[in-house]
Amino acid sequence: MSDSHVAPGGHNYETQIDDVAGAVHTGRGDIIHIERVEFAAARAAEALRHALSDDEETRQLLLDILRHLSTLQAQLEEWKELHHLLHELLAAFSPFYASLRTFSYAQIEPKNGRTLLRGWRPCQTEVDRLMDFETRVEYIHLSRDREEIRVSRPDWGARIASLRREVEDRLREERWNAEGLIDLADEFNQACDCYLSLADRELRRVIGKVQRLYTRLLGGIL
Question: Do residues 78 and 140 touch, judged by C-beta distance below 8 A?
Fold first, then answer.
């Protein structure tokens, strides 16, 4: 059977899908192909360059706004990445955490932590990814511009890494009790939740700033 499906009336679904590929939905039911948008942007940029060739002040103002938008976009991408990594970490942590809670509710004391350590391995992987991300962060940090709302880079790396070491040290002990480990796990879960909420809040804040800038910029043109 052919991969191409023909709808009643002779319309080819495969062709329709190819036509839509690379398109942008405007929210008004329209579809604009990205190539057309890029072409229009290039024409608009050329027109602006020509119009502002004798107006250095306005040109500089526009460049400053665009640089600011670029910085906000970079912040947005980093907050999104942090949000994703924390979500993945909590997903990996959930089965381990559930096992500990089961021991607690049933009042069962595992023989040792090495059995649980195997369930902790996925968490180690996700914490490593989080630490690697922290080394690459460039835009989530204390702003040097006093006019900006200052956002301190969260200490998610130091806090979560410290709790990870405490959990692993406890799991490797020859003599240990589940209660103390559960307390650590509760703290680990709370820290991850706290930073996830922070990332979500900052995502919304940056999106709001981008939308306000576009509204102010386009409101004076349209």
Answer: yes
Closest-CA residue to 198 (of 87, 115, 102, 54): 87
- pLDDT bin (cut points 50, 70, 90) of residue 61 is confident
DSSP 66-127: HHHHHHHHHHHHHHHHHHHHHHHHHHHHHHHHHHHHHHHHHT---S-HHHHHHHHHHHHHHH
Range of the structural domain that residue 21 is part of: 13-50
Which CATH number do you get for residue 127?
1.20.120
87, 22: one domain: no
Residues 24 and 81 placed together within one structural domain of the fold: no
pLDDT at 188: 95
> At a CB cut-off of 8 Å and minimum separation 6, what does 213 contact?
65, 68, 69, 72
Predicted confidence (pLDDT) at residue 15 exceeds the cutoff of 50: no
